[in-house]
Design brief:
The protein is mainly alpha-helical. It is globular, with a radius of gyration of 40 Å. The protein has 13 helices and no strands.
Length: 216
């Protein structure tokens, strides 16, 4: 029986395994797209918010594209055409004003050719444009301002028909009233139409608040 003596037996060298461990290189990792690619799952909440933001920017209350500007600018011709008769004294005394609006005479003649044209235009603008939410609020607000401005023409018309003076102080008052109404309509036409063409939101005195209440 042989006994192992650690003091006399020579030490036995330890054999190390020659197995080589290869680490994956960076280039090999790049070839595995599934290892490096992080899948971005669509966030429905962010997409919905982004779409809503685009809609608000496109249909903003104080912004308008080309067609909206054009429609809004044309609407302000309606009260001016309907109240052109109040300018008979001004155009007689100041010929340059008559020259200024002379290009509009053919359109005014067509508008005045049928007595119910004013009523038909009123109903069309109110029910087809103002009450139609397919139009932007910009168009509906400007259209409503033009309608309210035309409705206000009832008051000077009633005064003129009630008194209808032939001469004296009464005639002077009527002339002053008619001239004031006409100049106010002319200023509203120039200011309202030009503002709309430049993409601004005109707010006419007296009628803007009433238009705000009608356009929700």
């Amino acid at each position: 029986m042989l006994l192992f003596n650690p003091l006399t037996s020579p030490p036995t060298p330890l054999a190390l395994s020659q197995k080589t461990h290869h680490l994956p290189s960076i280039s090999s990792l790049k070839n595995h797209t599934s290892f490096l690619t992080i899948t971005n799952f669509p966030n429905k909440g962010n997409t919905l918010k982004r779409r809503r933001l685009e809609i608000v920017q496109a249909k903003g209350d104080d912004s308008a594209d080309g067609p909206d500007r054009l429609i809004s600018a044309v609407c302000y011709f309606y009260p001016f055409f309907d109240g052109i008769q109040y300018g008979k004294y001004v155009m007689t005394q100041f010929p340059p004003i008559q020259v200024l609006i002379h290009p509009l005479f053919p359109a005014i003649k067509v508008f005045k050719s049928f007595p119910l044209n004013g009523l038909l235009v009123f109903l069309t603008l109110y029910f087809v444009v103002v009450r139609n939410r397919n139009f932007s609020r910009y168009v509906r607000f400007n259209t409503m301002q033009a309608i309210v401005l035309d409705v206000l023409l009832i008051f000077p018309d009633l005064l003129e028909r009630s008194f209808n003076p032939r001469d004296g102080l009464g005639l002077d008052l009527v002339m002053s009233l008619d001239s004031t109404v006409f100049l106010f309509l002319l200023v509203c036409l120039i200011y309202g139409s030009s503002s709309c063409l430049f993409g601004q939101l005109p707010r006419l005195p007296i009628v803007a608040e009433a238009a705000d209440r009608q356009v929700l």
